[in-house]
Fold this protein.
Amino acid sequence: MKDPDDALVFSHEDHLISIETEILDHKILHDAMKTLSNRQREGLSLKFEHNHTYPEIAEIMGISIESARTMIYRALKDLRKCIENNGLSIQLLFFLSRSVKS
């Protein structure tokens, strides 16, 4: 049985690798975001950074609620495809998007 007082210790190299990996992941996300249209980026920002509802997004962007839903869905689909083509998991995308805001 493992002693509960044993702490997991990371080496300096592990820390550097972690930082470099995070930088690369952010670059992949940034590059993937640039493949989206300005409207798609705006819609994603309203939805995930500003936590607006679809009716609010529709009103702000001057489109129907259904169009807002479709635009967000397609933007996420395109973003996921681009990110996965670059070796980054979609789960990491959401982690990174939360850390980018802070």
In short: The radius of gyration is 18 Å. DSSP finds five helices and no strands in the chain. Residues 37-101 form a domain with the Arc Repressor Mutant, subunit A fold (CATH 1.10.10.10). Helices lie at 12-34, 38-49, 54-61, 65-85, 90-101.
